[in-house]
User: Fold these one by one.
Assistant:
Number 1:
Amino acid sequence: MRTIFKLIATLSFFSLALVSCQDGSVLTSPDSAQSGSLSNLTVILSAVGDYVWLDENMNGIQDDGEGGLSDIEVTLYDCQEDIYASTTTDEEGHYVFDGLEMGEYMLGFEAPDGYQFSPQDEGDDEVDSDVDPETGLTECFELEADSENLSWDAGLFMSADDDCTYGKGFWKNHCGFGPQDDLVSDLLPIRLGDEGEYSINVETTEMAYDILGQHSYGQPSNGITRLYAHFLTAKLNIANGASDEDIADLIEEVDDFLADNDYESWGELGEEDRQAINDWKGTLEDYNEGEIGPGSCHDFMVN
C-alpha cells in the first residue's frame, strides 16, 4: 500500500510540473534537476530597469547635458504594491533588477528632500519620465519571459523654492533661446544697481542673455561687464528662492556702486577700485557655484 501511495505522489508531481510549463512559467526543485525527462527544465529570467536623471528644465524629457542622479532608492513591487526587491541608482543614475520571473510588476522611486518628480509620459518612452509625480510609482506592467525592459525612467528637479544656487551658464542656457525651457522670464524684472543714472533694469530675457553672455554691455576683458554677469546670476538665484544671507552686505555694496557707474567707467578706475570689483565678482561667482552660501543645486548631478 505504501508503494502505491508513493507512486501516485510521484505521478502527481510530474503532472504539476508539465502543466506549469505549458503557461510559460517553470517549476523546478532540487530533485527535478536529476529526474530523467525534467532534467532540461530551467527558469527563464528577465530584467527591468534603467535611469534616473536631473531634469533641469522640468520638462519630463532627457535633454542633452542633463546628467544622472546617484543613490536614488528604487523599489520593485508586484501590482498589489507588495515589495519584491529594492536597489539604488549607480554613479551614472542607472539601476536594474534582473533574475526576474515573468509576471506583473510596478516600480517606485524615492525623491530626495527638496526634489520633485517631472511630468509623466511627456514623449518617447525611451527618454521621458514614467513616474506619477504624486505617488512616485509607475503603472503596473507585464514582464515577458526572457526579456529586458530597460525603459523605466524617472526625472527629478529641484523645487523652485529650494535653497540652492545655479551658475551663470545655467541661467544663460535657460533664457529660452536654445533647447532648454525659459526659466528666466518669471524671475524678471531684476535691477542691477540702486535707482540711479547708470543702473540697469533687466526686464527681458534678451537683456538677461546679453548680460550673462558678456559680449554686450562691454566685453569679457571689462571687469564691470564680468561683475554684471555674476551679479545678475546671483539675483536670479535669490529670486528663485536661494538665501542671500552670506552675500547680503555685498549686494548692497554692488548696488550702490552700479547706481553711479557702468561698464564704460572701467577705463577710468584706478587699480585699487578695479581690484575691489574683481573681488566682488569672485565672491559672487563662489556664491553662484555653491562654494559659499546655501550650496549648488547640482550637488546630486553626475557630470
Note: The mean pLDDT is 85.
Number 2:
Amino acid sequence: MKQLFLYKVYCYHKKLFLFFVIFAAISVACNLAGDEVTPFYVWGMYSQKEKAPVYYPIYEITINGKLVDYTTGFFPANRFFLQSPLSYYLQMKQNGDPVKLFLQKKMGSTYFHVLPNESSVFNSSQNIEKFPNWYKKYLEQTTGINIETLNVELLRGTYNIKNRVEIIHSDSLINGD
C-alpha cells in the first residue's frame, strides 16, 4: 500500500491528492455517461473490431531507374516520412484535401468560420500539382541521391490463400520520365 502512487501523493500533499481523486472520479463519470473528456482516456478507439482492408497499398519508388528499398537501410521514422506524403498525395488526388473534408464533417454547420481562411489553410489543386517536384527534392535530401528521373507506382496487394502477397492492381502515382 505504501508503494502506491496515490498513497505517496497523499502523504506528500493532501490537496494534490484530492485533485487527483476528483479528476479521476470526473473522468470515470464522464466516460460512463458516454462523453470523452480527456485526450488520454478515449475508450471509443477500442469499441469495435478492426476490419481487414480489401488491399494494402505498397509504394514502389524508382529513382534514376533503380528501385529504392526503403524497407532496409532507413530508420522507421524515415520509412514513414518516405511513404506518408505519398498516401496523403493519393488522397488529395482522389478527393481533395482530406483535412478539409474532416473539418467539414466534424464542424458541421459551424464550418463557415473556416471559409475566410480556406485558401491559406488547405491544399488547392495547384498545390497538388506541385507535389511531384516537392517530393523529388525531398527524396534528394533524404536519400542523398541526385534525381534525374522519379517514378512512383502504387501497387495494391492482398494476401492469397498461401498467405503470400499478391499484387492485384498497379497505378502510376508519379511519372517523372
Note: The chain is about 45% helix and 20% strand.
Number 3:
Amino acid sequence: MTEPDDTGLVTRLRDLALVEIDALLSGVEGEAYLALLAAHAEELEDALGAARRRAVELTRTIAAGDPLTLLDAGVSARARDGGRDEAERVARRLTARASAARALARIDDVVAAVYPRLIEVDRRRANS
C-alpha cells in the first residue's frame, strides 16, 4: 500500500469515527433499524480489517531487522568499498522504518477512535 492508500484508509476511518450511532438510527425502527445497524457494523468491520492488514504490513517493515547491524562489525567492514553504498543502504532502511512507524501511528490513532464505535454497534445488535 502506498502513502495515498494510507491517506484514504485513514480518511475512511476518521469519517467512521464521526458517525454518531444515535443520529444514524434516528427515526428508524423495526427491520430497517436492524438492517441499518448491520450495514454500519459491516462497514466498521471492513474498515477496521483493512487497518489491521495494513498495520501488519507496516509492523513487518518496522521489525525487518536492525539497519545498524554493521556497528558490531568493526571499522574495516563498514569502510569496505569506501562505505558509501552501505551508508546509503542503511539510510534507506532507516527512512523506510521511520516512514512505516509514522504510518502505523496514524492508523493506530484513528483505529482507537473507531473500535469503540464497533463495540457500541455490537452491543445494540446483541440487545435487539
Note: The two ends are 38 Å apart (CA to CA).
